[in-house]
Design brief:
about 400 residues, alpha+beta, phage-related protein like fold, 3 domains, seven-stranded mixed β-sheet
Length: about 400
């Protein structure tokens, strides 16, 4: 607002004197009223001009600036790839924030096309879901007896022979008997490995990569120990059920064709106490063959479970499907029957994970160590019996 000088005020308002006989007070009052009115009108015009600029022109200028800035080569050389990359990056960021509601000028800079057309590819999406292959386990641990130990091994006393009482007549001396004892030792074996993983992968994955490594180690260790519980040689690994030399067997009459009668013979070759606590163990291929077997009356030996939580049965006894059991073939042992509480698993150390970021730090790698100490052994071989396919 312009300042009104005294000269301007004198020029804008003149005191009109009509005669010397008029009252001076009235003249001054009238002059002040005219001056106030003139000042108010000028102030009003200034305020209206400041509050009401030309909005149409201002909006046009802003749109022109925004349109130029949103073009891929809006500022600088149109052939400059740096400017185009900046525009594409800005447009993609706007799209991520607003989606299809983003301004059209922003979307024009973002194209999805092939290299021949010279376009830019939208960044690929990285899913947090991992695709994993199925890892199958033999469920021996779920049916065996499991104990925790605090030493490298555990020894179980075993009575190898009983007394020998005899019937004697009156006044005859009794015969002496001896009781022999032994020990069964179950040592804890060591299973271990390590994985080297890039530090960049560990940091860029937000912890997902390390989680997947730990899961892979757990699956591998579970698979290896389950296999050893079935087929372990007992040297550096647990003794397996199928490698114990003291377990008796029943021979199937054919090398490759499984019959129903040998299964009945095998089951009833066990003492009643062991038989009533026994279960069948075989793999899925053998189980499919057994499901087709019938007795002399045409009834299937395999019976489905009609109650939730109850297992399938063969000849009235539960079935355990173990992937590590051998297939039906000449000279193999595809079926095992027995009381699996007689197989003892000892846990000395649960799977231990040690992350070492220093050993290979100069190479940008982190080493993840994994160790497991577990043992297994058949405590009473008499509780088990195997079916052996005849040799061809």
């Amino acid at each position: 607002m312009k300042h009104l000088t005294k000269e301007a005020l004198r020029g804008s308002v003149a005191i009109d004197r009509k005669g010397d006989d008029e009252d001076p007070v009235n003249l001054v009052t009238k002059a002040l009223d005219d001056l106030t009115k003139s000042v108010d009108e000028r102030l009003k015009k200034v305020e209206e001009k400041a509050a009401a600029p030309d909005l149409t022109k201002l909006e046009d200028r802003l749109k022109a600036v925004e349109t130029k800035a949103n073009r891929p080569a809006g500022s600088g050389n149109a052939d400059d790839p740096t400017e185009e990359a900046k525009a594409e990056k800005k447009a993609f960021g706007t799209y991520l924030r607003h989606g299809q509601q983003a301004p059209t000028e922003e979307l024009k800079a973002l194209t999805v096309s092939n290299d021949e057309q010279g376009g830019y590819l939208a960044p690929a999406e990285m899913s947090t879901e991992f695709i994993r292959d199925l890892v199958e386990y033999s469920p021996v641990r779920s049916v065996a007896s499991v104990r925790n130990i605090a030493a490298p091994s555990v020894k179980y006393p075993k009575r190898t022979a009983g007394t020998n009482a005899q019937w004697e007549g009156e006044a005859e001396d009794s015969e002496e008997s001896t009781v022999t004892f032994g020990q069964v030792e179950v040592p804890a074996r060591k299973l271990m490995t390590f994985v080297d993983i890039s530090n960049e992968l560990l940091s860029d994955s937000g912890g997902t990569a390390e989680q997947e490594v730990r899961l892979a180690l757990a699956e591998d260790f579970g698979k290896k120990e389950s296999t050893a519980f079935v087929n372990g040689d007992g040297v550096k690994q647990p003794e397996g059920l199928m490698t114990n030399a003291d377990i008796s067997n029943t021979i199937n009459g054919h090398a490759t064709v499984l019959a129903a009668d040998p299964l009945i013979t095998l089951m009833y070759a066990q003492p009643a106490m062991y038989r009533n606590a026994g279960s069948w163990m075989m793999n899925g291929t053998t189980l499919a063959t057994v499901r087709k077997l019938k007795d002399g009356n045409g009834n299937y030996l395999w019976q489905p479970s009609f109650q939730a939580g109850q297992p399938e049965t063969i000849l009235g006894r539960p079935v355990i499907e173990a992937v590590d059991m051998p297939d039906i073939a000449s000279g193999t042992f595809p079926i095992l029957f027995g009381d699996f509480s007689a197989y003892r698993i000892v846990d000395r150390l649960a799977m231990s994970i040690l992350v070492n970021p220093y050993l290979l730090a100069t190479k940008g790698l982190t080493r993840i160590h994994a160790t497991r100490r577990v043992g297994g052994r058949v405590l009473q071989a008499a509780r088990f019996r195997k079916l052996k396919m005849a040799a061809s």
